[in-house]
Specification:
- The structure is a single chain.
- 42% of the residues lie in helices and 17% in strands.
- By secondary structure, the protein is α/β, with parallel strands linked by helices.
- Among the domains are: 1-136 and 165-188 and 328-396, Rossmann fold (3-Layer(aba) Sandwich), CATH 3.40.50; 192-321 and 412-442, Rossmann fold (3-Layer(aba) Sandwich); 454-557 and 800-835, Periplasmic binding protein-like II (D-Maltodextrin-Binding Protein, domain 2, 3-Layer(aba) Sandwich); 563-569 and 690-791, D-Maltodextrin-Binding Protein, domain 2 (3-Layer(aba) Sandwich).
- Strands 9-8-10-11-12-15-16-17 form an eight-stranded mixed sheet, with helices on one face.
- α8 (243-256) packs across α9 (270-282), α14 (488-500) crosses α26 (801-815) and α20 runs antiparallel to α28.
- Residues 154-166 have a biased composition (Low complexity).
């Protein structure tokens, strides 16, 4: 078995696929209990080195596992690479068989049945393939005839066609003439035969003929079935390797019959099929609505339509394996990889303890490497049949639905979804197909199959309710298929289907009610069961005496009660203290205010220092005290402006300092207003809003906190029918004020969260636990859970299905599977500290940001004033310097004139004339 991957697959997909190959090998190895070593041959296509590395890791992990140690198994792998050359592949296989391998994993894509027979015909070695084999389709091998005039390839059956012998040096294989089992039937194929599905759909759509386009020899098996069916005529068939070849054939059909309806069946690779469709849509001369394409290769992911908007322009139908949606959303698997994943479940099967002695001599001694291929069988007949029988008897529900094989190793008892592309370029399910019931449209009931039959599709009514049932992806909310939903109930019904083998179809209840009786009868899911519009009601449905009178319930799968849900008091409301006065602002906000104060002090000091320097620009020696006093005075002025003293001893002398001071106090006033506005509600809370109600008695004796529940449901019925005094008081209050009753649980939770502690919602305790564990983690349950309730599935009275469901529920309860489901869907999100409240963060980012901008504007104005002042001072100093220089020059000239005339300037007073 090989791994076939899309070209755009990620490395993670390659890794996962390789591990699945390893699991296939493991379950083959487990069938040889008691062997010392198991030799496995693996043939991989060239370029799959990453797959080989992951395969080696998987084998190493298995050999080191407890299972391998317990069974005494050591897997030894012999690897070889190949291409589509049959001769080279045969040589590689021959080397592996000579090495003593007991099974071979081989991708069969590219090889016909005749080629595979030539490889394995005389070896007695079972194989696992991923393509439909000849034995699974038409029993007669086809004979090729080439019609050159029509440029088509047609096939006619022949019972005398000779298959090529196993290649050798001319000798014949030493097989005994009494071999009863055909060696070509050893092994299994994982690919279901979908040719009958295409034929059934052609009948449903009214097509009498089809056009067949294929790209490999394996598709000839499908073509032969079309020709042998007698229900549909093959108009043309052609093998292509490029989309242009298929488009040329379709263009010639269009020219001959432009109005006729045409069914085109594409049995080719995904990329080639995409190109054929794209070419058709982009050709303006080709019709669209009269063409219907069918993709034989199953789809496994919605990603097949990504980037191909042309699909929405044509009628395109495809088949989808059931149960593949979850695993293919994360990985871009194609159908071959998904087929390989099926083998994972076989590991859970117990290996057969008998017949182990058949392999002991084989795997311990190996095989003589000198024997030429084809002279003798590499396994005895008994050895080959032991492995083959084990493979064909394995039955499990895998990633492609039910996996089971007939005596020839072909898939049986499988069901596929029939998908079509809608106008929004989305896959939608139109029905299902199985060999026993044929095509069944979605939402339709196959009346030809009675209830209780294995192919009967049970109608399951349900309701959207977290976490019981939720829409998996809003994009597919209108799809209406089983894969649309997820949740506890979805997992529950899937597990029941797996254990009982029943098939089901989910649909949402029409009126969004669980079920209560009124003048017009029962509504909701109970009403649909009563009116026979559904077979099963699946939800968190409470078992009550009134409901038990009209429907049958299964054993409970969950136990619940009634809880009173209220909004949590905030951590800021537990008394008045230091924390209360710090509560209006978050830590981020307090840090921002402190940073603003530091920035203002820094700028005030800078401005004051600059002014002081201008006033005392020229210090003489001995003036250090004057400089120190100036610095001290600047610091004092800065503190005075942000925190004024009563004496007013220091005041800013600079205009820039006074500007900053003015803007600072504007900032302080606005911040203080915001602070007091936020603090006031915390100091004046009413007792009713955050009361210390802890019991139902306290709740029923007060009238400030309102309480309510669902208008219809088990909780409402409990209070209405209860004879307990406290419960009667609660019901009378709710009946008097009908507005406290809500239509849905989500509406009730919304009222609790928006009421600030003034509304209590009575609901099931399981739902309350789920809400308490969801963000923003602001709800809690007051008092104790009371009135134990049980959830069960509702079925039609007297239905034999009830016993099957009971058995499945008991098995899951005893095995702990239901507890695992509950732990999965009720996991709390409130274990980690909650994030910052949006209101606080909004306050910090919006209000305080604008207030901080006010400070920034003030500092900018102050800087501008200081710059202007500096420029003026610089300008005045330049003028004074020029004036002083002119005065000095004049004085010097007068002094020189006095020396020449003998006139001396008079001496200053007190200066001796000596």
């Amino acid at each position: 078995m090989g791994v076939e991957m899309n070209g755009g697959s990620s490395g993670l997909m390659v890794s996962f696929s390789a591990r699945m190959i390893g699991l296939v090998v493991c379950f083959v190895a487990l069938s040889w209990h008691g062997c010392q070593a198991v030799r496995v041959g693996v043939l991989l296509r060239r370029g799959h080195n990453d797959v080989w590395r992951e395969y080696e890791d998987a084998m190493t992990n298995f050999n080191n596992s407890d299972v391998a140690s317990r069974l005494g198994i050591d897997i030894k792998t012999h690897r070889a690479t190949f291409d589509d050359n049959l001769f080279i592949t045969a040589q590689e296989l021959c080397k592996q068989l000579n090495a003593g391998v007991t099974t071979v994993l081989l991708p069969s894509r590219g090889f016909s049945d005749a080629a595979l027979y030539s490889l394995f015909g005389s070896t007695n070695v079972p194989r696992i393939t991923t393509t439909v084999q000849q034995r699974c389709g038409s029993k007669d091998p086809p004979v090729l005839q080439e019609d050159v005039w029509n440029e088509t390839t047609t096939w006619t059956p022949s019972s005398t066609s000779t298959l090529p012998p196993w290649f050798s040096d001319g000798s014949t294989t030493e097989r005994t003439p009494d071999d009863e089992e055909d060696p070509t039937t050893l092994g299994v194929t994982m690919m279901p035969d979908l040719a009958p599905a295409v034929i059934d759909l052609a009948d449903v759509w009214g097509f009498k003929s089809l056009v067949f386009v294929y790209d490999s020899d394996h598709a000839l098996v499908t073509l032969q079935q079309f020709m042998d069916s007698g229900r549909v005529r093959v108009q043309q068939a052609r093998r292509v390797s490029r989309s242009a070849e298929a488009h040329s054939m379709l263009s010639s059909l269009e020219k001959g019959d432009q109005q006729g309806r045409k069914l085109v069946v594409l049995d080719c690779a995904y990329d080639l099929a995409k190109d054929i469709v794209i070419r058709h849509v982009r050709d303006v001369y080709m019709g669209r609505r009269n063409y219907h394409y069918v993709l034989v290769k199953p789809i496994v992911s919605e990603r097949y339509l990504e980037g191909v908007s042309e699909f929405a322009a044509l009628n395109i139908t495809a088949f989808r394996f059931q149960n593949t949606e979850g695993i293919t959303q994360a990985y871009n698997y194609n159908y071959r990889t998904t087929l390989i994943i099926n083998a994972y479940r076989t590991l859970k099967e117990d290996p057969p303890p008998k017949n182990a002695d058949l392999f002991e001599d084989r795997v311990s001694s190996g095989y003589s490497g000198g024997t030429s291929c084809g002279r003798v069988a590499y396994l005895t007949k008994d050895q080959g049949q032991v492995v083959d029988a084990y493979l064909k008897n394995v039955v499990f529900d895998g990633k492609t639905g039910r996996v089971a094989f007939d005596s020839e190793g072909c898939r049986v008892n499988f069901t596929v979804d029939v998908m079509q592309v809608n106008g929004k370029n989305q896959w939608i399910q139109t029905g299902t197909w199985s060999k026993s019931s044929g095509f069944v449209r979605s939402g339709e009931r196959n009346d030809s199959v009675p209830p209780g039959h294995k192919d009967y599709v049970y109608r399951v009514t349900t309701i959207l309710e977290d976490p019981y049932l939720m829409v998996k992806n809003k994009k597919y909310e209108t799809d209406g298929t089983n894969q649309t939903y997820e949740g506890f109930c979805k997992d529950l019904i899937d597990a029941i289907s797996r254990l009982t083998g029943i098939k089901y179809q989910l649909h949402l209840v029409k009126d969004d009610h669980y079920g209560s009786v009124s003048i017009d009868g029962w509504n909701g899911m109970i009403g649909e069961i009563v009116s026979n519009d559904a077979d099963i009601a699946l939800a968190g449905l409470t078992i009550t005496s009134a409901r038990k009178n009209v429907v049958d319930f299964t054993h409970p799968f969950l136990t619940s009660g009634i809880a009173a849900l209220i909004k949590k008091p905030s951590k800021l409301q537990k008394g008045v203290g230091v924390n209360t006065f710090l509560a209006p602002f978050e830590l981020h906000l307090w840090i921002g205010l402190g940073a603003s104060l530091g920035a203002v002090l820094l700028f005030l000091f800078i401005f004051g220092a600059a002014v002081m320097k201008n006033d005392h620009c020229c210090y003489q020696a001995g003036d250090e005290d004057v400089s120190k006093d100036a610095v001290l005075k600047t610091v004092c002025e800065s503190l005075e402006m942000v925190a004024p003293l009563p004496t007013g001893s220091f005041m800013a002398r600079s205009i820039s300092g006074r500007i900053v001071s003015s803007f600072w106090w504007m900032f302080v006033v606005l911040v203080f207003s915001t602070y007091t506005t936020t603090l006031t509600p915390l100091l004046t809370l009413r007792d009713a809003e955050y009361s210390s109600i802890s019991t139902l008695e306290e709740l029923s004796m007060q009238n400030k906190v309102k309480f309510g529940t669902l208008r219809t449901g088990g909780v409402q019925e409990y209070f209405e029918e209860s004879q307990y005094r406290t419960n009667k008081l609660i019901w009378e209050a709710m009946k008097t004020e009908r507005h406290v009753l809500v239509g849905t649980r989500q509406e009730g939770v919304g009222r609790v969260r928006s009421s600030d502690g003034k509304y209590v919602f009575f609901t099931e305790s399981l739902f309350a636990d789920y809400v308490n564990g969801r963000r923003p983690c602001d709800t809690k349950v007051i008092g104790e859970v009371f009135a134990t309730q049980y959830f069960g599935l509702a079925v039609t009275p007297g239905s034999p299905l009830r016993e099957k469901l009971n058995e499945a529920i008991v098995n899951m309860t005893e095995s702990g599977e239901i507890d695992e489901m509950k732990a999965k869907w009720w996991a709390s999100e409130c274990d980690a500290p909650p994030p910052d409240e949006p209101m606080r963060l909004e306050l910090f980012l919006h209000i305080i940001f604008y207030l901080a901008c006010l400070l920034i504007v003030g500092i900018a104005v102050a800087l501008l004033e200081l710059l202007v002042r500096g420029c003026n001072k610089w300008r005045f100093s330049r003028l004074r310097a020029v004036s002083a220089r002119i005065d000095r020059e004049r004085a010097l000239r007068r002094s020189r004139q006095g020396d020449v005339t003998g006139v001396f300037p008079s001496c200053p007073a007190g200066v001796s004339d000596r």
